[in-house]
Amino acid sequence: MAKAVNFTGQTQKVSFASHQNLRKAVIDSTRNNNLQESTTDAQIDSVIKSFFRNARDLAGGKSKRKNDILQQPTTENQSGVVREN
Predict the structure, then answer these.
(1) Strand ranges inside the chain, DSSP E
(2) How far apart are CA 30 and CA 22, in angstroms?
(3) Where does the record place Polar residues bias (predicted)?
(4) Rounded mean pLDDT of 39-44?
(5) How many CA atoms lie within 13 A of 79 on its CB side?
(6) Rounded CA separation 16/37 (Å)
(7) Residue-wise pLDDT tens digits, 7-17
(8) Residue range 41-67: mean pLDDT, rounded
(9) CB–CB of 7/15 below 8 Å?
């Protein structure tokens, strides 16, 4: 689900920021933690944006992309530079 949502709703994804009740619930629950009482909305929004930006790496996405790259055949050109095909 996180892959279909982003903070602003760009690129035809669902906008997290437009769901004010959900955003407020995240902000309120963050501030209920004694160590996070003085955290600003902007700081919380920054963490939320980072979460959605990295959502494609959840559930093994990063390791899958890494394995896909490692399995691509490579060729060496005349100057000795290795290129991926």
Answers:
(1) 5-6, 14-15, 74-76, 82-84
(2) 12
(3) 69-85
(4) 95
(5) 2
(6) 22
(7) 888 888 888 88
(8) 80
(9) yes
Alpha-carbon distances of 68 from 52, 62, 72, 81, 84, rounded to whole Å: 22, 10, 7, 20, 12
CA-to-CA distance for 6 and 77, rounded, in angstroms?
41
Long-range pairs for 12-18: beta carbons < 8 A, 24 or more residues apart: 16/48, 16/52, 17/45
> At which residue do the structure tokens 């929004």 appear?
45
pTM score > 0.70 for this model? no
Q: Could you tell me the CA-to-CA distances from 37 to 43, 45, 52, 66 in Å, in that order?
A: 12, 15, 23, 39
What b/e readout covers 9-46, taking b as 16+ CB neighbours within 10 angstroms?
A: eeeebeebeeeeeebeebbeebeeeeeeeeeeeeebbe
